[in-house]
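User: Quick sanity check before I run a bigger batch. Here is a single chain. Can you write out its predicted 3D structure?
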Amino acid sequence: MSGPAQVDVAVIGGGIAGLWLLARLQKAGYSAVLLEAEALGGGQTLASQGIVHGGLKYAINLTLGSDSEALADMPARWRACLDGRGEVDLHGLKPAAERHLFWARRTLA
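Assistant: Done. Predicted structure follows.
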Protein backbone atom coordinates (compact mmCIF):
# COMPACT_ATOMS: atom_id res chain seq x y z
CA MET A 1 0.00 0.00 0.00
CA SER A 2 1.38 3.40 -0.92
CA GLY A 3 1.46 6.52 1.25
CA PRO A 4 -0.67 9.62 0.96
CA ALA A 5 -0.83 11.39 -2.39
CA GLN A 6 1.31 14.49 -2.75
CA VAL A 7 -0.21 17.30 -4.82
CA ASP A 8 0.37 21.04 -5.04
CA VAL A 9 -3.30 21.99 -5.34
CA ALA A 10 -6.66 20.33 -4.66
CA VAL A 11 -9.54 21.81 -6.66
CA ILE A 12 -12.93 21.33 -5.00
CA GLY A 13 -15.83 21.07 -7.43
CA GLY A 14 -16.06 19.68 -10.93
CA GLY A 15 -18.09 22.39 -12.60
CA ILE A 16 -16.83 24.49 -15.49
CA ALA A 17 -14.77 26.70 -13.16
CA GLY A 18 -13.15 23.76 -11.37
CA LEU A 19 -12.37 21.94 -14.61
CA TRP A 20 -10.97 25.12 -16.16
CA LEU A 21 -8.80 25.78 -13.11
CA LEU A 22 -7.54 22.19 -13.10
CA ALA A 23 -6.51 22.44 -16.77
CA ARG A 24 -4.77 25.79 -16.20
CA LEU A 25 -2.90 24.50 -13.13
CA GLN A 26 -1.73 21.37 -14.91
CA LYS A 27 -0.66 23.39 -17.96
CA ALA A 28 1.36 25.64 -15.62
CA GLY A 29 3.16 22.58 -14.25
CA TYR A 30 1.38 22.11 -10.93
CA SER A 31 0.41 18.73 -9.61
CA ALA A 32 -3.34 19.10 -9.11
CA VAL A 33 -6.28 16.88 -8.30
CA LEU A 34 -9.98 17.63 -8.70
CA LEU A 35 -12.45 16.46 -6.05
CA GLU A 36 -16.14 16.21 -6.94
CA ALA A 37 -18.80 14.49 -4.83
CA GLU A 38 -21.31 14.09 -7.67
CA ALA A 39 -21.12 14.08 -11.48
CA LEU A 40 -18.84 16.49 -13.35
CA GLY A 41 -20.79 19.55 -14.40
CA GLY A 42 -23.75 18.49 -12.26
CA GLY A 43 -23.84 21.35 -9.75
CA GLN A 44 -23.68 25.04 -10.59
CA THR A 45 -22.86 24.33 -14.23
CA LEU A 46 -26.10 22.36 -14.60
CA ALA A 47 -28.04 24.91 -12.50
CA SER A 48 -27.06 27.63 -14.99
CA GLN A 49 -28.42 25.47 -17.84
CA GLY A 50 -24.88 24.84 -19.05
CA ILE A 51 -24.52 28.42 -20.23
CA VAL A 52 -20.88 29.42 -20.14
CA HIS A 53 -20.58 33.17 -20.42
CA GLY A 54 -18.30 36.04 -19.57
CA GLY A 55 -20.41 37.53 -16.80
CA LEU A 56 -22.92 39.51 -18.85
CA LYS A 57 -25.84 38.15 -16.85
CA TYR A 58 -24.42 39.84 -13.75
CA ALA A 59 -24.68 43.21 -15.52
CA ILE A 60 -28.33 42.61 -16.31
CA ASN A 61 -29.27 46.09 -15.04
CA LEU A 62 -27.62 47.27 -18.26
CA THR A 63 -24.92 49.35 -16.57
CA LEU A 64 -21.36 48.73 -17.65
CA GLY A 65 -18.69 49.03 -15.00
CA SER A 66 -14.96 48.58 -14.78
CA ASP A 67 -15.27 44.92 -15.84
CA SER A 68 -16.69 45.84 -19.24
CA GLU A 69 -13.36 45.44 -21.06
CA ALA A 70 -12.77 41.98 -19.60
CA LEU A 71 -16.32 40.94 -20.49
CA ALA A 72 -15.92 42.25 -24.04
CA ASP A 73 -12.95 39.90 -24.56
CA MET A 74 -14.78 36.76 -23.43
CA PRO A 75 -16.39 35.72 -26.75
CA ALA A 76 -12.99 35.80 -28.46
CA ARG A 77 -11.40 33.86 -25.60
CA TRP A 78 -14.09 31.15 -25.76
CA ARG A 79 -13.84 30.93 -29.56
CA ALA A 80 -10.05 30.53 -29.34
CA CYS A 81 -10.50 27.68 -26.85
CA LEU A 82 -13.11 25.99 -29.04
CA ASP A 83 -10.68 26.30 -31.97
CA GLY A 84 -7.96 24.60 -29.89
CA ARG A 85 -5.74 27.69 -29.61
CA GLY A 86 -6.88 29.17 -26.29
CA GLU A 87 -5.92 28.84 -22.64
CA VAL A 88 -7.72 25.50 -22.47
CA ASP A 89 -8.04 23.24 -25.51
CA LEU A 90 -11.76 22.68 -26.13
CA HIS A 91 -11.48 21.85 -29.83
CA GLY A 92 -13.42 18.59 -29.50
CA LEU A 93 -16.50 20.23 -28.02
CA LYS A 94 -19.50 21.39 -29.98
CA PRO A 95 -21.50 24.27 -28.52
CA ALA A 96 -25.24 23.70 -28.29
CA ALA A 97 -25.77 27.26 -29.56
CA GLU A 98 -23.58 30.04 -30.86
CA ARG A 99 -25.51 32.76 -29.03
CA HIS A 100 -28.00 33.28 -26.25
CA LEU A 101 -30.19 36.26 -25.53
CA PHE A 102 -31.10 37.85 -22.21
CA TRP A 103 -34.42 39.51 -21.59
CA ALA A 104 -33.94 42.50 -19.33
CA ARG A 105 -36.47 44.89 -17.93
CA ARG A 106 -35.53 48.16 -16.37
CA THR A 107 -38.09 47.68 -13.58
CA LEU A 108 -39.81 44.81 -11.81
CA ALA A 109 -43.26 46.19 -12.78
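The longest helix spans residues 68-82.

User: Great, the batch can go ahead then.
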